[in-house]
Each structure stands twice: as C-alpha cells, then as structure tokens.
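Open question from group meeting: does this chain pack into something compact, or does most of it stay loose? Before anyone orders reagents, we agreed to write out a predicted structure and look at it together. Recording both the input and the output here so the notebook holds the full record.
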Amino acid sequence: MCNNDAEEKIIEETSKPEANIEEILEKVNQSIQEVKEEFVSKVKYDGHKDKIIDELHEELQGYKDDIIHKLLRPVITDIIYTIDNSNKTVQALRQKDVSEIDPKKLIGIIEGQSEDLEDILYRQGVEEFTYVMPEFDPKKQKIIKTVETAEREKDRTVARSLKKGYMFENRVIRHELVEVYVYKEKKE
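Structure tokens returned:
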C-alpha cells in the first residue's frame, strides 16, 4: 500500500512538467551548492591539518636532533681527548731514538689507550663482561673456535675466553668471544 501511495505522488508531481522540472533543477542546484561548500570546507580543513602536521614534524625533528647531539657530545669529547693523548705520546716517542724506547713501556702505553677507551664506554653506561659459568651461553657468548675433547663432561663448556663481551642497558652489544669444547669419541 505504501508503495502505491509513493508511486501516485510521483505520477502526480510529474504530471506538471514545467513547474516540476524547475523545482527539481532548483533542488539539484541547491544540493550541488551544498556539496561544493562542504568540499571547499573539507579542503580548507585538510590544508590546515597538513600545515599543523608539518609544523609538528619539524618541531619533533628539532627535538630529535638536539637529543642526539646531547647524547653524542660526551662520547665525541672523550674520543677527542683520547686522540689528543695518543698524538702527544706519539710525538714524545718520535723524539726518542729507537734504541731508547723500552718495549715494556711501549706495551704499557698501548694498554693505557685500551683502558682509556674502556673508561669512555664505562662513562656511557657500557659494561664489559666475561661470563664465569663453565657452560656455553649462546645469549651472551659466541663460539669462535672449537676444541675437541675426549671428556664427555666438558662438552659445550668454555675452554677459554678470547675477547670480552659488552652490555648496554642490560642488552648485549657484543657477545663474549670464546673457545668451546666439543666432545669427540676417541677411536681405538
């Protein structure tokens, strides 16, 4: 029944062609104008939103650059200090005759440079470690070399530490480099 009423109304409205077409055109024009206004408004809104996003991105990038600078500056300063000390030592050694240079003293100088670099890492929160457990731990150690053993109980235990491991904020930066025993039956 409702469909018939709607159909009758449409038929009735379309029976006055001239008046009806003008009304329809007016409604269509009005709808187009509303859509156009909404579109212009949306474009302006999107443009404003894009501008705000760009400004916030630029501001965030500035903060990021400043944080990186603040974090790296002490490390860079320490490295420069170590370079200056190394250059000073090299100059002092160059002024001496080769026969005057004591090999033990030279080894001590090189060890001192390693200690200076370890101090830089320590000041930045990097900790060195040598794992003391006899069993190999793949989370903290990396096998560089294997050593065959006939003793079954030594299988997958550390034979010796080759290089220290380093951690930063409880995360392994570099695994301790180790030699590990691998059990191999003796053939008789």
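Observations to bring back to the group:
The chain is about 60% helix and 20% strand.
The first helix runs from residue 2 to 14.
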